[in-house]
TrEMBL record:
Positions of the PCI domain: 200-368
Organism superkingdom: Eukaryota
Species name: Cutaneotrichosporon cavernicola
Name of the protein described by the UniProt record: PCI domain-containing protein
Family designation: Belongs to the proteasome subunit S11 family.
Length: 415
């Protein structure tokens, strides 16, 4: 199928094309065609843009979208907001049977967009600043669509090049529509998923969900994304904070067959080794977790260390923890505790000093994280102990002040 821009004869009479499509359309689509034709006849370009966006989102309109774009939209694209034009083109591009055709179509549309870059001065013309919105946003959204098409074709280097250009342009903008961010982060997440780069995938996927309207996602898509996010959180060697994921409503889609994965994330957040051990019986259902069992064991031990540091008494007497205490909390032999502490220090999960001779560690800070029910109870108890300690200190200071005042009066009377 040819996806080149149609010749002038193909779009010579847009109104006749619309009337023909309106007459031949099934009853479910006829009102949409009527809305498009009416807006075009009245030259209500904004209304026409809205009608076109609604049409390409309608179930059953897919077979007519390519012809609509070629024979009508190309004739009035200069009347349409550039960002909305790209939004329509992205949807139409999905209707091509082959990724190569999709890429060719999107490249054709992209070539007609305005450049988002400033123009340097020449001998014949002055410098031109970067154009205002929506030109940069349209360009970025189009680049994202091209990157996704390249990803489908297995062109990872080409996809990454487009994504890097998107990232650079987005960082230069003061205001960007969520639609554009969603387009970029969605493709970036897919790219990092293919690369099995869990940390960047986790970040990009969460940002995508923050930008997209979840109502646009099917139940199956939401469930798959929740599953992939959990796997990335577990296997990411830089991910030790699970709070944002635990608070995200998309996790509710895992209730049922994947409830155990959601519980596993909660176990990691709490550093609950016993719960981890019981849930690890399900790893057979996820081969990638079974293959990474040793890494996951080390990761849950690190989270248990953080939890142990969080639960230690706040009596103000000492911040020291012995290797024996840590070994008991992490279920590790004492001779492996030092390596675990050094690993936690290198990852920035804790801060403090290690005394190898005394087999103790002085912890001054642990990584902040979202607390769940029992952890909040522990925090409440610690606040209570801290309040008592502050009260005792205040009473002691007040007593000293009273003593000093009484001694002063006694000396004055004696004089």
């Amino acid at each position: 199928m040819d996806v080149d821009q149609p010749t002038s004869s193909a779009a010579a009479n847009p109104l006749a094309f619309l009337e023909q499509q309106e007459a031949a359309a099934p009853p479910s689509l006829q009102p949409a065609w009527t809305e498009i034709r009416t807006a075009y006849e009245k030259k209500l370009w904004h209304n026409l843009t809205v009608a076109l966006l609604k049409f390409v989102a309608l179930p059953g309109s897919g077979s007519a979208q390519i012809e609509l774009f070629d024979k009508f939209i190309t004739s009035i694209e200069d009347k349409i907001n550039a960002l909305r034009l790209v939004e329509i083109a992205r949807r139409v591009g999905r209707e091509y049977a082959e990724p190569e055709l999709t890429l060719k179509f999107l490249e054709n549309v992209h070539s007609r967009l305005g450049s988002p870059y400033p123009v340097e001065a020449t001998d014949d013309a002055p410098a031109q600043p970067a154009p205002a919105r929506p030109v940069p946003e349209a360009f970025v959204l189009s680049l994202s669509a091209l990157a996704y098409a390249q990803l489908l074709l297995g062109d990872l280097s080409g996809c990454k090049k487009r994504l890097d250009e998107c990232d650079k342009l987005l960082n230069e903008q003061d205001t960007v529509e969520p639609l554009v961010y969603a387009g970029y982060y969605g493709v970036a997440a897919d790219y990092y998923k293919v690369k099995a780069d869990y940390g960047p995938y986790y970040k990009s996927a969460l940002l995508y969900l923050a930008c997209v309207d979840e109502k646009e996602l099917s139940d199956e898509d939401r469930r798959a994304r929740a599953h992939d996010l959990c796997i990335a959180a577990l296997l990411g060697d830089t991910i030790y904070n699970f709070g944002e994921l635990l608070q995200h409503p998309i996790l509710q889609t895992l209730d049922g067959d994947y409830t155990w994965i959601k519980e596993l994330i909660s176990a990691f957040n709490a550093g609950a080794i016993g719960k981890f051990d019981s849930l690890s019986n399900h790893f057979g259902a996820e081969p990638i977790l079974e293959e990474s069992r040793a890494f996951l064991r080390q990761k849950i031990c690190l989270m248990a260390l953080i939890q142990a540091a969080f639960e230690r008494p706040r009596d103000g007497k000492t911040r020291l923890m012995t290797f024996e205490q840590i070994g008991e909390a992490t279920r590790l032999p004492v001779h492996e505790v030092e390596h675990l502490i050094m690993k936690a220090l290198s990852l920035g999960l804790i801060r403090g000093s290690l005394d190898q001779v005394a087999s103790t560690v002085d912890l001054a800070w642990v990584q902040p994280r979202v607390l769940e029910g029992s952890q909040l109870d522990t925090l409440g108890e610690q606040f209570g102990h801290w309040t008592d300690a502050v009260g005792q200190t205040a009473n002691g200071v007040a007593g000293l002040e009273a003593g000093v005042g009484l001694n002063g009066v006694t000396h004055a009377l004696a004089a």
